[in-house]
Specification:
Blueprint (H helix, E strand, L loop, with lengths): L2 H14 L2 H10 L2 H9 L3 H13 L22 H28 L6 H7 L8 E2 L2 E2 L3 H14 L1 H21 L2 H12 L5 E4 L9 H4 L3 E5 L2 E12 L6 E8 L5 E7 L5 E5 L11 E12 L10 H36 L1 E2 L2 E2 L4 H29 L5 H25 L11 H13 L4 H13 L6
Parallel strand pairs: 3-6, 4-6
Antiparallel strand pairs: 1-2, 4-5, 5-9, 6-7, 8-9, 10-11
Bound molecules: flavin-adenine dinucleotide.
Protein backbone atom coordinates (compact mmCIF):
# COMPACT_ATOMS: atom_id res chain seq x y z
CA UNK A 1 0.00 0.00 0.00
CA UNK A 2 1.32 3.44 -0.90
CA UNK A 3 2.01 5.96 1.87
CA UNK A 4 -0.80 8.14 0.53
CA UNK A 5 -3.32 5.26 0.70
CA UNK A 6 -2.16 4.30 4.25
CA UNK A 7 -2.61 7.93 5.34
CA UNK A 8 -6.09 8.12 3.76
CA UNK A 9 -7.25 4.90 5.42
CA UNK A 10 -5.90 6.04 8.82
CA UNK A 11 -7.79 9.35 8.50
CA UNK A 12 -10.95 7.36 7.61
CA UNK A 13 -10.48 5.19 10.69
CA UNK A 14 -9.97 8.17 12.96
CA UNK A 15 -13.16 9.75 11.61
CA UNK A 16 -15.11 6.62 12.51
CA UNK A 17 -13.69 6.31 16.03
CA UNK A 18 -16.26 6.52 18.80
CA UNK A 19 -14.35 8.44 21.48
CA UNK A 20 -17.00 7.77 24.11
CA UNK A 21 -16.65 4.00 23.65
CA UNK A 22 -12.84 4.26 23.69
CA UNK A 23 -13.09 6.24 26.92
CA UNK A 24 -15.21 3.51 28.52
CA UNK A 25 -12.77 0.83 27.32
CA UNK A 26 -9.85 2.76 28.79
CA UNK A 27 -11.55 2.62 32.20
CA UNK A 28 -11.46 -1.17 32.05
CA UNK A 29 -8.10 -1.97 30.36
CA UNK A 30 -4.70 -0.44 29.76
CA UNK A 31 -5.26 0.67 26.15
CA UNK A 32 -1.56 1.08 25.32
CA UNK A 33 -0.79 -2.40 26.54
CA UNK A 34 -3.81 -3.84 24.68
CA UNK A 35 -2.85 -2.17 21.38
CA UNK A 36 0.68 -3.46 21.82
CA UNK A 37 -0.56 -7.01 22.42
CA UNK A 38 -3.04 -7.05 19.59
CA UNK A 39 -0.67 -5.48 17.05
CA UNK A 40 2.01 -8.06 17.86
CA UNK A 41 -0.40 -10.98 17.30
CA UNK A 42 -0.05 -13.21 14.25
CA UNK A 43 -2.80 -12.65 11.68
CA UNK A 44 -4.24 -16.17 12.11
CA UNK A 45 -4.38 -15.80 15.92
CA UNK A 46 -6.11 -12.47 15.47
CA UNK A 47 -8.70 -14.08 13.19
CA UNK A 48 -9.30 -16.84 15.78
CA UNK A 49 -9.79 -14.18 18.48
CA UNK A 50 -12.33 -12.28 16.35
CA UNK A 51 -14.22 -15.52 15.58
CA UNK A 52 -14.30 -16.41 19.28
CA UNK A 53 -15.64 -12.99 20.21
CA UNK A 54 -18.33 -13.11 17.50
CA UNK A 55 -19.34 -16.59 18.70
CA UNK A 56 -20.09 -15.11 22.12
CA UNK A 57 -22.68 -12.85 20.50
CA UNK A 58 -24.54 -15.78 18.80
CA UNK A 59 -28.30 -15.30 18.46
CA UNK A 60 -30.17 -16.82 21.38
CA UNK A 61 -31.74 -20.14 20.43
CA UNK A 62 -35.18 -20.73 21.91
CA UNK A 63 -36.14 -24.23 23.05
CA UNK A 64 -38.72 -26.11 20.99
CA UNK A 65 -42.29 -25.09 21.83
CA UNK A 66 -44.22 -28.09 23.14
CA UNK A 67 -47.18 -27.93 25.51
CA UNK A 68 -46.85 -31.65 26.32
CA UNK A 69 -44.42 -30.91 29.16
CA UNK A 70 -44.70 -34.36 30.79
CA UNK A 71 -44.41 -36.25 27.48
CA UNK A 72 -47.87 -37.68 27.95
CA UNK A 73 -47.94 -38.76 24.30
CA UNK A 74 -45.74 -41.64 25.46
CA UNK A 75 -48.89 -43.40 26.67
CA UNK A 76 -49.71 -43.97 23.00
CA UNK A 77 -48.20 -46.91 21.12
CA UNK A 78 -46.07 -46.11 18.02
CA UNK A 79 -48.96 -46.73 15.63
CA UNK A 80 -51.25 -44.42 17.62
CA UNK A 81 -48.55 -41.79 17.84
CA UNK A 82 -48.20 -41.89 14.04
CA UNK A 83 -51.95 -41.23 13.71
CA UNK A 84 -51.69 -38.34 16.17
CA UNK A 85 -48.87 -36.81 14.12
CA UNK A 86 -50.79 -37.30 10.86
CA UNK A 87 -53.75 -35.39 12.31
CA UNK A 88 -51.37 -32.71 13.59
CA UNK A 89 -49.90 -32.31 10.11
CA UNK A 90 -53.35 -32.16 8.54
CA UNK A 91 -54.48 -29.45 10.94
CA UNK A 92 -51.32 -27.40 10.40
CA UNK A 93 -51.26 -27.70 6.62
CA UNK A 94 -54.92 -27.74 5.63
CA UNK A 95 -56.83 -26.02 8.42
CA UNK A 96 -54.58 -23.39 9.98
CA UNK A 97 -54.14 -21.36 6.77
CA UNK A 98 -57.89 -21.04 6.11
CA UNK A 99 -59.45 -21.05 9.52
CA UNK A 100 -59.47 -17.35 10.45
CA UNK A 101 -61.04 -16.39 7.15
CA UNK A 102 -63.88 -18.90 7.55
CA UNK A 103 -64.31 -17.90 11.20
CA UNK A 104 -64.75 -14.26 10.15
CA UNK A 105 -67.10 -15.20 7.31
CA UNK A 106 -69.16 -17.35 9.68
CA UNK A 107 -69.04 -20.19 7.11
CA UNK A 108 -68.10 -23.84 7.11
CA UNK A 109 -65.30 -25.02 4.75
CA UNK A 110 -67.10 -27.97 3.15
CA UNK A 111 -64.03 -28.90 1.09
CA UNK A 112 -62.32 -30.26 4.23
CA UNK A 113 -64.83 -33.10 4.69
CA UNK A 114 -63.29 -35.51 2.11
CA UNK A 115 -59.81 -34.62 3.42
CA UNK A 116 -60.87 -35.40 6.98
CA UNK A 117 -62.46 -38.64 5.80
CA UNK A 118 -59.14 -39.74 4.29
CA UNK A 119 -57.54 -39.66 7.74
CA UNK A 120 -59.82 -42.61 8.62
CA UNK A 121 -60.42 -41.41 12.17
CA UNK A 122 -64.18 -41.00 12.13
CA UNK A 123 -66.02 -43.31 14.55
CA UNK A 124 -62.55 -44.12 15.86
CA UNK A 125 -63.47 -46.22 18.88
CA UNK A 126 -66.40 -48.19 17.49
CA UNK A 127 -65.98 -51.88 16.65
CA UNK A 128 -67.15 -53.02 13.21
CA UNK A 129 -69.22 -51.11 10.61
CA UNK A 130 -66.02 -49.92 8.90
CA UNK A 131 -64.84 -48.17 12.08
CA UNK A 132 -61.20 -48.41 13.20
CA UNK A 133 -61.93 -49.85 16.70
CA UNK A 134 -59.14 -47.89 18.38
CA UNK A 135 -58.73 -46.63 21.94
CA UNK A 136 -60.56 -43.77 23.65
CA UNK A 137 -57.13 -42.52 24.67
CA UNK A 138 -56.18 -42.01 21.02
CA UNK A 139 -59.54 -40.43 20.33
CA UNK A 140 -58.85 -37.94 23.11
CA UNK A 141 -55.43 -37.08 21.75
CA UNK A 142 -56.96 -36.49 18.30
CA UNK A 143 -59.68 -34.22 19.71
CA UNK A 144 -56.90 -32.28 21.40
CA UNK A 145 -54.82 -32.04 18.18
CA UNK A 146 -57.80 -30.65 16.29
CA UNK A 147 -58.82 -28.11 18.92
CA UNK A 148 -55.17 -27.08 19.31
CA UNK A 149 -55.52 -25.49 15.86
CA UNK A 150 -59.26 -24.86 15.69
CA UNK A 151 -62.09 -25.62 18.10
CA UNK A 152 -64.77 -25.33 15.39
CA UNK A 153 -63.34 -28.12 13.22
CA UNK A 154 -62.94 -30.20 16.33
CA UNK A 155 -66.58 -29.52 17.27
CA UNK A 156 -67.86 -30.36 13.78
CA UNK A 157 -65.95 -33.63 13.96
CA UNK A 158 -67.09 -34.36 17.53
CA UNK A 159 -70.75 -33.96 16.54
CA UNK A 160 -70.34 -36.30 13.57
CA UNK A 161 -68.12 -38.95 15.13
CA UNK A 162 -69.30 -38.73 18.74
CA UNK A 163 -72.84 -37.43 19.19
CA UNK A 164 -74.47 -38.50 15.90
CA UNK A 165 -72.63 -41.78 15.19
CA UNK A 166 -72.50 -42.53 18.92
CA UNK A 167 -76.29 -42.30 19.22
CA UNK A 168 -76.68 -44.87 16.44
CA UNK A 169 -73.84 -47.07 17.75
CA UNK A 170 -75.20 -47.15 21.31
CA UNK A 171 -78.94 -46.91 20.67
CA UNK A 172 -79.53 -48.24 17.15
CA UNK A 173 -80.58 -51.73 16.03
CA UNK A 174 -78.14 -53.92 14.14
CA UNK A 175 -79.89 -53.04 10.89
CA UNK A 176 -79.67 -49.31 11.63
CA UNK A 177 -75.97 -49.60 12.46
CA UNK A 178 -75.30 -51.48 9.22
CA UNK A 179 -77.18 -48.86 7.24
CA UNK A 180 -75.79 -45.66 8.73
CA UNK A 181 -72.43 -46.20 10.42
CA UNK A 182 -70.25 -47.19 7.41
CA UNK A 183 -71.38 -44.19 5.32
CA UNK A 184 -70.99 -41.86 8.26
CA UNK A 185 -67.54 -43.29 9.00
CA UNK A 186 -66.54 -42.40 5.43
CA UNK A 187 -68.19 -38.99 6.03
CA UNK A 188 -70.40 -39.41 2.99
CA UNK A 189 -73.35 -38.78 5.30
CA UNK A 190 -73.05 -35.98 7.85
CA UNK A 191 -74.94 -36.09 11.12
CA UNK A 192 -76.21 -33.73 13.81
CA UNK A 193 -77.56 -34.26 17.32
CA UNK A 194 -80.71 -32.46 18.47
CA UNK A 195 -81.34 -32.50 22.20
CA UNK A 196 -81.40 -28.87 23.45
CA UNK A 197 -84.55 -26.80 22.94
CA UNK A 198 -85.16 -23.05 22.93
CA UNK A 199 -86.70 -23.19 26.41
CA UNK A 200 -84.96 -26.30 27.78
CA UNK A 201 -81.17 -26.51 28.04
CA UNK A 202 -79.74 -27.67 31.36
CA UNK A 203 -83.03 -29.29 32.28
CA UNK A 204 -83.26 -31.66 29.29
CA UNK A 205 -83.20 -34.83 31.41
CA UNK A 206 -86.70 -34.26 32.73
CA UNK A 207 -87.96 -31.34 30.72
CA UNK A 208 -87.98 -32.11 26.99
CA UNK A 209 -91.03 -30.53 25.35
CA UNK A 210 -90.45 -31.83 21.83
CA UNK A 211 -93.01 -34.61 21.32
CA UNK A 212 -93.38 -37.82 19.31
CA UNK A 213 -96.49 -39.91 18.74
CA UNK A 214 -96.86 -43.18 16.90
CA UNK A 215 -99.56 -43.15 14.25
CA UNK A 216 -99.70 -46.44 12.36
CA UNK A 217 -96.22 -47.31 11.05
CA UNK A 218 -95.01 -43.72 11.43
CA UNK A 219 -94.05 -41.27 14.15
CA UNK A 220 -95.16 -37.65 14.20
CA UNK A 221 -92.67 -35.23 15.74
CA UNK A 222 -93.47 -31.70 16.89
CA UNK A 223 -91.41 -29.01 18.60
CA UNK A 224 -88.14 -27.08 18.28
CA UNK A 225 -84.44 -27.79 18.85
CA UNK A 226 -81.90 -25.02 19.37
CA UNK A 227 -78.11 -24.84 18.91
CA UNK A 228 -77.91 -27.98 16.78
CA UNK A 229 -74.37 -28.11 15.32
CA UNK A 230 -73.97 -29.12 11.63
CA UNK A 231 -77.76 -29.20 11.21
CA UNK A 232 -77.97 -26.51 8.50
CA UNK A 233 -76.36 -28.94 6.05
CA UNK A 234 -76.38 -32.36 7.73
CA UNK A 235 -78.02 -35.30 5.96
CA UNK A 236 -79.50 -36.63 9.19
CA UNK A 237 -80.22 -35.25 12.65
CA UNK A 238 -80.75 -37.39 15.73
CA UNK A 239 -83.84 -35.89 17.38
CA UNK A 240 -84.70 -36.68 21.00
CA UNK A 241 -88.42 -36.32 21.81
CA UNK A 242 -90.87 -37.31 24.52
CA UNK A 243 -93.48 -39.95 23.64
CA UNK A 244 -96.96 -38.53 24.22
CA UNK A 245 -98.21 -42.04 25.07
CA UNK A 246 -95.68 -43.48 27.56
CA UNK A 247 -93.85 -40.25 28.54
CA UNK A 248 -90.40 -41.71 27.74
CA UNK A 249 -87.66 -39.99 25.71
CA UNK A 250 -87.09 -41.62 22.31
CA UNK A 251 -84.50 -40.98 19.61
CA UNK A 252 -85.08 -40.63 15.86
CA UNK A 253 -82.86 -40.50 12.79
CA UNK A 254 -84.53 -37.60 10.97
CA UNK A 255 -83.48 -37.23 7.34
CA UNK A 256 -83.21 -33.68 6.01
CA UNK A 257 -85.92 -34.12 3.37
CA UNK A 258 -88.54 -35.62 5.70
CA UNK A 259 -91.72 -33.54 5.46
CA UNK A 260 -92.10 -31.13 8.39
CA UNK A 261 -88.35 -30.76 9.10
CA UNK A 262 -86.83 -27.25 8.81
CA UNK A 263 -83.40 -26.01 9.95
CA UNK A 264 -82.55 -22.32 10.13
CA UNK A 265 -79.03 -21.04 10.72
CA UNK A 266 -78.41 -19.27 14.05
CA UNK A 267 -76.64 -16.03 13.15
CA UNK A 268 -74.56 -13.59 15.18
CA UNK A 269 -72.47 -16.06 17.23
CA UNK A 270 -69.29 -14.71 18.84
CA UNK A 271 -67.77 -18.17 19.30
CA UNK A 272 -67.23 -21.28 17.16
CA UNK A 273 -68.36 -19.25 14.18
CA UNK A 274 -67.34 -21.97 11.71
CA UNK A 275 -69.75 -24.45 13.29
CA UNK A 276 -73.16 -24.05 11.68
CA UNK A 277 -75.72 -24.19 14.48
CA UNK A 278 -79.39 -24.41 13.64
CA UNK A 279 -82.79 -23.77 15.11
CA UNK A 280 -84.79 -26.81 14.02
CA UNK A 281 -88.56 -26.70 13.74
CA UNK A 282 -90.50 -29.95 13.52
CA UNK A 283 -94.05 -29.45 12.32
CA UNK A 284 -95.90 -32.77 12.19
CA UNK A 285 -92.62 -34.18 10.92
CA UNK A 286 -93.18 -37.73 9.69
CA UNK A 287 -90.56 -40.32 10.62
CA UNK A 288 -90.88 -44.01 9.68
CA UNK A 289 -90.62 -46.58 12.50
CA UNK A 290 -87.43 -47.84 10.80
CA UNK A 291 -85.79 -44.52 11.70
CA UNK A 292 -86.61 -44.70 15.42
CA UNK A 293 -83.53 -45.68 17.39
CA UNK A 294 -84.61 -49.13 18.47
CA UNK A 295 -82.57 -49.29 21.68
CA UNK A 296 -83.32 -45.76 22.97
CA UNK A 297 -86.03 -46.28 25.56
CA UNK A 298 -85.48 -43.45 28.03
CA UNK A 299 -83.21 -40.49 28.79
CA UNK A 300 -80.77 -42.96 30.41
CA UNK A 301 -79.87 -44.10 26.90
CA UNK A 302 -79.29 -40.50 25.77
CA UNK A 303 -77.06 -40.06 28.83
CA UNK A 304 -74.86 -42.98 27.69
CA UNK A 305 -73.96 -40.99 24.58
CA UNK A 306 -73.38 -37.79 26.58
CA UNK A 307 -71.04 -39.52 29.04
CA UNK A 308 -68.80 -40.54 26.18
CA UNK A 309 -68.85 -37.17 24.44
CA UNK A 310 -68.39 -35.14 27.64
CA UNK A 311 -64.97 -36.77 28.02
CA UNK A 312 -64.26 -35.66 24.44
CA UNK A 313 -65.18 -32.07 25.31
CA UNK A 314 -62.69 -32.14 28.20
CA UNK A 315 -59.98 -33.16 25.70
CA UNK A 316 -61.15 -30.44 23.35
CA UNK A 317 -60.70 -27.88 26.12
CA UNK A 318 -57.15 -29.18 26.60
CA UNK A 319 -56.50 -28.66 22.87
CA UNK A 320 -57.84 -25.11 22.97
CA UNK A 321 -55.67 -24.34 26.02
CA UNK A 322 -52.61 -25.94 24.46
CA UNK A 323 -53.03 -24.00 21.22
CA UNK A 324 -53.33 -20.76 23.19
CA UNK A 325 -50.34 -21.53 25.44
CA UNK A 326 -48.08 -22.50 22.55
CA UNK A 327 -49.09 -19.44 20.49
CA UNK A 328 -48.41 -17.20 23.48
CA UNK A 329 -44.99 -18.72 24.16
CA UNK A 330 -44.04 -18.35 20.47
CA UNK A 331 -45.19 -14.74 20.45
CA UNK A 332 -43.36 -13.80 23.64
CA UNK A 333 -40.16 -15.27 22.21
CA UNK A 334 -40.52 -13.06 19.13
CA UNK A 335 -41.92 -9.85 20.54
CA UNK A 336 -39.34 -7.37 21.86
CA UNK A 337 -39.87 -4.48 24.26
CA UNK A 338 -37.19 -2.44 26.07
CA UNK A 339 -34.68 -4.11 23.73
CA UNK A 340 -35.41 -7.63 25.00
CA UNK A 341 -37.77 -10.45 24.09
CA UNK A 342 -40.76 -10.17 26.39
CA UNK A 343 -40.39 -13.85 27.38
CA UNK A 344 -37.25 -12.80 29.28
CA UNK A 345 -39.33 -10.74 31.74
CA UNK A 346 -40.14 -12.31 35.10
CA UNK A 347 -43.83 -11.47 35.12
CA UNK A 348 -44.27 -12.84 31.60
CA UNK A 349 -42.57 -16.09 32.62
CA UNK A 350 -44.85 -16.24 35.65
CA UNK A 351 -47.93 -16.18 33.40
CA UNK A 352 -46.43 -18.73 31.00
CA UNK A 353 -45.60 -21.14 33.82
CA UNK A 354 -49.04 -20.70 35.41
CA UNK A 355 -50.58 -21.58 32.04
CA UNK A 356 -48.32 -24.60 31.62
CA UNK A 357 -49.07 -25.91 35.13
CA UNK A 358 -52.80 -25.82 34.50
CA UNK A 359 -52.36 -27.30 31.05
CA UNK A 360 -50.25 -30.15 32.39
CA UNK A 361 -52.76 -30.90 35.16
CA UNK A 362 -55.55 -30.94 32.57
CA UNK A 363 -53.65 -33.25 30.24
CA UNK A 364 -52.84 -35.66 33.03
CA UNK A 365 -56.48 -35.69 34.10
CA UNK A 366 -57.91 -36.42 30.65
CA UNK A 367 -55.34 -39.15 30.00
CA UNK A 368 -56.53 -40.98 33.12
CA UNK A 369 -60.15 -40.29 32.15
CA UNK A 370 -59.65 -42.01 28.80
CA UNK A 371 -57.87 -44.95 30.44
CA UNK A 372 -60.96 -45.42 32.62
CA UNK A 373 -63.10 -45.18 29.50
CA UNK A 374 -60.99 -47.81 27.74
CA UNK A 375 -61.37 -50.08 30.78
CA UNK A 376 -65.16 -49.62 30.60
CA UNK A 377 -65.13 -48.00 34.06
CA UNK A 378 -65.85 -44.34 33.31
CA UNK A 379 -68.71 -42.90 35.38
CA UNK A 380 -70.86 -39.84 34.62
CA UNK A 381 -69.38 -37.93 37.54
CA UNK A 382 -65.80 -38.65 36.44
CA UNK A 383 -66.57 -37.30 32.97
CA UNK A 384 -68.34 -34.28 34.51
CA UNK A 385 -65.42 -33.47 36.81
CA UNK A 386 -62.99 -33.42 33.88
CA UNK A 387 -65.38 -31.30 31.79
CA UNK A 388 -65.75 -28.73 34.58
CA UNK A 389 -62.08 -28.57 35.52
CA UNK A 390 -60.69 -28.46 31.99
CA UNK A 391 -63.13 -25.90 30.60
CA UNK A 392 -62.65 -23.64 33.64
CA UNK A 393 -58.88 -23.78 33.42
CA UNK A 394 -59.03 -23.28 29.67
CA UNK A 395 -60.83 -20.01 30.23
CA UNK A 396 -57.94 -18.88 32.47
CA UNK A 397 -55.28 -20.06 30.03
CA UNK A 398 -56.75 -18.36 26.95
CA UNK A 399 -57.19 -15.16 28.94
CA UNK A 400 -53.54 -15.20 30.12
CA UNK A 401 -52.44 -15.94 26.55
CA UNK A 402 -54.46 -13.05 25.19
CA UNK A 403 -52.91 -10.78 27.84
CA UNK A 404 -49.43 -11.69 26.64
CA UNK A 405 -50.29 -10.61 23.10
CA UNK A 406 -51.06 -7.07 24.28
CA UNK A 407 -53.13 -5.20 21.69
CA UNK A 408 -52.37 -7.84 19.07
CA UNK A 409 -54.36 -10.25 21.22
CA UNK A 410 -57.61 -8.89 19.88
CA UNK A 411 -56.62 -9.25 16.22
CA UNK A 412 -57.92 -12.39 14.50
CA UNK A 413 -54.63 -12.81 12.56
CA UNK A 414 -52.85 -13.91 15.74
CA UNK A 415 -55.39 -16.75 16.39
CA UNK A 416 -55.58 -16.00 20.09
CA UNK A 417 -58.80 -13.94 19.88
CA UNK A 418 -60.45 -16.97 18.24
CA UNK A 419 -59.27 -19.26 21.07
CA UNK A 420 -60.63 -16.82 23.67
CA UNK A 421 -64.04 -16.64 21.99
CA UNK A 422 -64.28 -20.38 21.27
CA UNK A 423 -63.40 -21.30 24.86
CA UNK A 424 -66.67 -19.63 25.89
CA UNK A 425 -68.78 -22.03 23.84
CA UNK A 426 -66.88 -25.10 25.06
CA UNK A 427 -67.42 -23.83 28.59
CA UNK A 428 -71.21 -23.86 28.13
CA UNK A 429 -72.04 -26.79 25.86
CA UNK A 430 -72.45 -30.43 26.90
CA UNK A 431 -73.47 -29.33 30.36
CA UNK A 432 -72.58 -25.99 31.96
CA UNK A 433 -70.17 -25.66 34.89
CA UNK A 434 -73.09 -25.60 37.30
CA UNK A 435 -74.77 -28.71 35.92
CA UNK A 436 -71.58 -30.79 35.81
CA UNK A 437 -70.68 -29.54 39.29
CA UNK A 438 -74.08 -30.66 40.58
CA UNK A 439 -73.51 -34.10 39.04
CA UNK A 440 -70.19 -34.44 40.89
CA UNK A 441 -71.65 -32.91 44.07
CA UNK A 442 -74.48 -35.45 44.07
CA UNK A 443 -71.97 -38.24 43.66
CA UNK A 444 -69.64 -37.23 46.51
CA UNK A 445 -72.31 -36.19 49.02
CA UNK A 446 -75.02 -38.65 48.10
CA UNK A 447 -77.47 -35.72 47.97
CA UNK A 448 -78.93 -34.12 44.86
CA UNK A 449 -78.79 -30.31 44.90
CA UNK A 450 -80.26 -29.89 41.42
CA UNK A 451 -83.43 -28.12 42.59
C1 LIG B 1 -71.95 -23.35 20.30
C2 LIG B 1 -72.92 -24.30 20.86
C3 LIG B 1 -73.14 -25.53 20.27
C4 LIG B 1 -74.10 -26.40 20.76
N1 LIG B 1 -74.36 -27.58 20.10
C5 LIG B 1 -75.39 -28.35 20.48
C6 LIG B 1 -75.76 -29.50 19.72
O1 LIG B 1 -75.15 -29.82 18.69
N2 LIG B 1 -76.83 -30.23 20.13
C7 LIG B 1 -77.54 -29.92 21.26
O2 LIG B 1 -78.49 -30.63 21.58
N3 LIG B 1 -77.19 -28.84 22.02
C8 LIG B 1 -76.15 -28.04 21.65
N4 LIG B 1 -75.80 -26.94 22.40
C9 LIG B 1 -76.59 -26.60 23.58
C10 LIG B 1 -75.85 -26.70 24.89
O3 LIG B 1 -75.67 -28.02 25.26
C11 LIG B 1 -76.62 -25.85 25.92
O4 LIG B 1 -76.37 -24.50 25.58
C12 LIG B 1 -76.21 -26.14 27.35
O5 LIG B 1 -76.60 -27.40 27.74
C13 LIG B 1 -76.80 -25.10 28.32
O6 LIG B 1 -78.17 -24.92 28.10
P1 LIG B 1 -78.76 -23.44 27.91
O7 LIG B 1 -77.90 -22.73 26.93
O8 LIG B 1 -80.19 -23.57 27.55
O9 LIG B 1 -78.57 -22.71 29.28
P2 LIG B 1 -79.58 -22.75 30.55
O10 LIG B 1 -79.94 -24.15 30.87
O11 LIG B 1 -80.69 -21.81 30.32
O12 LIG B 1 -78.65 -22.21 31.70
C14 LIG B 1 -78.40 -20.83 31.93
C15 LIG B 1 -77.59 -20.70 33.22
O13 LIG B 1 -78.33 -21.22 34.34
C16 LIG B 1 -77.58 -22.18 35.02
N5 LIG B 1 -78.42 -23.23 35.59
C17 LIG B 1 -79.42 -23.93 35.00
N6 LIG B 1 -79.95 -24.81 35.86
C18 LIG B 1 -79.29 -24.71 37.02
C19 LIG B 1 -79.37 -25.33 38.31
N7 LIG B 1 -80.23 -26.32 38.56
N8 LIG B 1 -78.53 -24.92 39.28
C20 LIG B 1 -77.62 -23.96 39.03
N9 LIG B 1 -77.49 -23.32 37.85
C21 LIG B 1 -78.31 -23.69 36.86
C22 LIG B 1 -76.66 -22.76 33.94
O14 LIG B 1 -75.53 -23.41 34.50
C23 LIG B 1 -76.29 -21.49 33.17
O15 LIG B 1 -75.28 -20.83 33.83
C24 LIG B 1 -74.82 -26.07 21.93
C25 LIG B 1 -74.57 -24.85 22.56
C26 LIG B 1 -73.64 -23.97 22.05
C27 LIG B 1 -73.43 -22.66 22.76
Amino acid sequence: MSIFKKFKSTIGLVQKLDLEKIGKLAEKVDLNKMIGLVSSMKQEDLQKLVKFMEGGKKKHEFPEIDGDFYDLHQVLNPEERAIQLAVREFMQKEIKPIVNNYWLKDEFPHQIIPQLAKLNICGLTYEGYGCPGRSSLLEGFLAMEMARVDCSVSTFFGVQSGLAMGSIYHCGSEEQKQKWLPVMQRMEIIGAFGLTEPEVGSGVAGGLTCTCKQVGGKWILNGQKKWIGNATFSDITIIWARDLDDGNVKGFIVEKDFPGFAAEKIKGKMALRIVQNALITLTNCEVPEGNRLQRANSFKDTAKVLRMTRAGVAWQAVGCARGAYESALRYTNERKQFGRTISSFQMVQDLLVTMLSNLTAMQTMVCRLSQLQDDGKLTDEQASLAKVFCTLRTRDIVSHARELFGGNGILIEHDIARFVADAEAIYSYEGTKEINTLIVGRSITGQSAFI
